[in-house]
Amino acid sequence: MRLKDRVAIVTGSTRGIGEAIARAFAHEGARVVIVGRDQVRAARVAEDIANHGGRAVAITADVSRLEDAQHLVKQTLETWGKVDILVNNAGITRDNLLLRMTEAEWDEVLAVNLKGAFNCTKSVVRPMMKQRQGRIINITSVVGQMGNAGQANYAASKAGLIGFTRSVARELASRHITCNAIAPGYIETDMTATLEAGVREALQKQIPLNRLGCVDDVAGVAVFLASDAAAYITGQVINVDGGMVMA
Ligand code: NAD
Description:
Layout lengths: L6 E5 L4 H12 L3 E6 L2 H13 L3 E6 L5 H15 L4 E4 L14 H29 L2 E6 L3 H4 L5 H21 L4 E8 L5 H4 L3 H9 L9 H12 L10 E4 L7
Helix pairs in contact: 1-9, 3-4, 4-6
Nicotinamide-adenine-dinucleotide (NAD) binds next to helix 1 and helix 7.
């Protein structure tokens, strides 16, 4: 029980990596807030966690809207009285070559992936400062480090998230609030399910551990960063990528 009685908000936790992180947190004793735009999906995950003996509530929010993020934190405080952990995981892709990329594709990705993290972090900072402790974990990507053709918007949002992580880490360290990022490589989720077989094979060749990752590979690191064992780690980017990026 490494997170016993902690309260954790995990954005984009109705499926994929976010869902795995929420389940892993609940397994370690945390009370989790399942966040997504779809109330039915969010409620289903929360219910299933409760059926397995965990504690979870579902709150609907579009993280790209500041008022939704503020409402999310307010509701969490009303339900459980505190917020110990925030995981900014909600993310989208709208891939296109730069020549064809529309302004809307650029704006949407930046609004969810980067502004979403700003909105949620800003909303959670005051209660965390009052508590004089907190953990913020941002889910970035190896694409933010390496770049990727067809993902200028996504790569920019994920690289931005790394700068955001380091700035927040410096700003809040004196209040015992840590802020770190996890950079997954290619993880088997809905987001990567659409990869063609050839692309998948080519990708695998670039991964020293010779497989795509699974959601629990990422969730395990999130539990560690949220736990007491990571108290002296802040401003870091931890790659969970099978060795794809070695800096
Ligand atoms: P996914 O598409 O399976 O899940 C994304 C989640 O975010 C869903 O629950 C969705 O409902 C939610 N979401 C999307 N927009 C939202 C919004 N505006 N407000 C609230 N919730 C919203 O994706 P995933 O593969 O699980 O990825 C999760 C995170 O990990 C993303 O930030 C993604 O960029 C990052 N990531 C994924 C991979 C990968 O290989 N899958 C690799 C690197 C980084």
